[in-house]
Write a structure and sequence with these properties.
This protein has 196 residues and is of the alpha/beta class. It is built from 5 helices and 5 strands, in the order αααβαβαβββ. It starts with a helix and ends with a strand.
């Protein structure tokens, strides 16, 4: 009986040791740490592109022109679709959120909700018409209308010879006046990576 218990304990210890041999080592790092592991689009590309392109957006002449023509009023923006046309999967929503955060944090523009989240808010407002008190119910028709829509694309070009590869990304964004359909700003960011 004692011998069987020792054999069972030894077998369990060996199984645990073998199962831990393949376990990955995980190290927590700052979210701003550059980690180019594969050469593909990553969170650093997303963050740096959003920061640079948003700074360019806010420093362009369209902003001062709008402010002077509208008595210093802050323009209202909506971030539309940023379409991934690259050769790889890119989560464009994280990129869009980085842009929205930079716009809000600037304090120079207002941002309105877009897409599915806007529809969820409208559904809640509709539900309040029947289920909330008159004093707390939010009314229809009082949303801020956007003055401008920001849209764009992410494209890539890959050049490869044997094991060496060059990946080029071009992110193009356009700001359009919703009333006039006039493009008031076009910005881009280019990233090139050499993978050996």
């Amino acid at each position: 009986m004692k011998n069987n218990a020792i054999k069972l304990f030894t077998a369990l210890a060996l199984a645990l040791t073998l199962s831990n041999c393949g376990a990955p080592k995980v190290e927590r790092v700052s979210e701003t740490t550059v980690t180019d592991l594969s050469g593909r689009w990553n969170e650093t590309d997303s963050r740096l592109t959003a920061e640079q392109i948003t700074a360019e957006l806010m420093d362009h002449a369209w902003y001062s022109t709008y402010a002077s023509e509208n008595g210093g009023k802050k323009p209202v923006l909506i971030v539309g679709l940023i379409t991934n046309k690259s050769h790889e999967h890119i989560a464009t929503e994280t990129f869009s959120k980085d842009i929205e955060k930079a716009v809000i944090n600037s304090g120079r523009m207002k941002l309105v909700q877009a897409g599915n989240m806007r529809e969820e808010i409208r559904a809640e407002r509709a539900d309040q018409q029947n289920n909330a008190s008159q004093s707390t119910m939010k009314k229809f028709g009082l949303e801020n209308g956007a003055d401008f829509m920001l849209q764009g694309t992410v494209n890539s070009i890959v050049d490869q010879n044997k094991k060496e590869k060059s990946v080029y990304y071009q992110i193009d964004l356009e700001l359009t006046n919703i009333q006039t359909n006039e493009k008031v700003w076009i910005g881009d960011k280019k990233i090139k990576k050499l993978i050996k």
